[in-house]
Amino acid sequence: MTVQRKFYAPGRVNLIGEYTDFNGGLVFPCAINRGTSLQVTEDRSIDGIALSSDDFDFTTTVVCSSEAKPVGREWVNYPLGVMVEFAKLGFNPSAFRFNYSGDLPLSAGLSSSASVSVVTAVALNELTGANLSAQELALLSQRSENTFINVQCGIMDQFVIAMAQSDCAIALDCATLEYQQIPLNLKEYRIVIGNTNQPRNLKGSAYNDRVNECQAALKTLAPVTHAKQLADVTPDQFYEHSNLLTDAIVRKRAQHVVEECDRVNRATVALKAGRLEEFGRMMLQSHVSLRDLFEVSSDTLDCMVDLAMNTDGVIGSRMTGAGFGGCTVSLVHQESVDHFIESVGSKYESQMKLKADFYVTTAMNGASEVLN
Ligand code: GLA
Questions:
Q1: Ligand 1, atom 11: nearest CA belongs to which residue?
Q2: Which of 25, 145, 212, 367 could form a disulfide with 261 if both were Cys (CB 3.0 to 4.6 A apart)?
């Protein structure tokens, strides 16, 4: 009998703490109710692993080797990069078909690529008996994206996708990987994700440019603050020494990171204390900072956030993920959700000439094998 196994990894939405992860700061994401399924079928006739997807026409068979090279700019590079990392650890699985399918919008800021990477890592971990922990699988998937895809992303996406618990968001310190699963008690509010349907491309240089600008800020501020990472700089230290940052762009990037880290701290305290309106206000402040200081928002994201904030029952709204298009996340009163989707959707379409999609989500579990 042919052996078939199924694995699943969710996508994620980041509630607050954007562009803080690679600066050693705090993030506060949760897993969502959309994700990637991976069907694994044993096939002794295959030398390597045959990769296919319901969403892309391109298929290929790859050999799991540490020497493997990217295949153009194809989607298979996400699973292939993870296989390379397993190969480096001495695991070279072969004779399988991997078929991917999912309901995460692509290039939309909900981590469809990290979801593919992590589901692959979870599957390879089971198939090879590598026995890595969920945290190790997250780190391995991040390494693959850094080295194979060449995006210098932080650990947020892979970590939450691998580690999430239902009904919780993860307050993660990206410097130490210490984390808390914080119950997401949103009372009568719902998480509504708005997809601008303006696709973005993280492989573009803009993300890596931000990484470099943050490193430049740290280089200047470290000697006077003793900070090891930009997130170590306190707001007071920043205001005292910001004149040393003579490049205005670098100064704005640093101000965002420093203030956003402080906001995540205050936002998680507010949430734990049940002060949801305060949490919501900080989501909007985060958006404004990403728009004006970090400059990763877009007309479509700004339009959707403005429309959301002018709709009854909304206590907070912001862009989520890397930005440059993609999705917003809003906290909407449960009785206003239908009206929100209808009203924001139609005004957005008339202003931006694009049709938006909306997903209402709760916080879900992280990646695992699907056992029947
Ligand atoms: C992308 C990256 C993450 C993080 C966010 C911005 O999702 O993969 O590591 O940097 O952007 O917060």
A1: 322
A2: 25
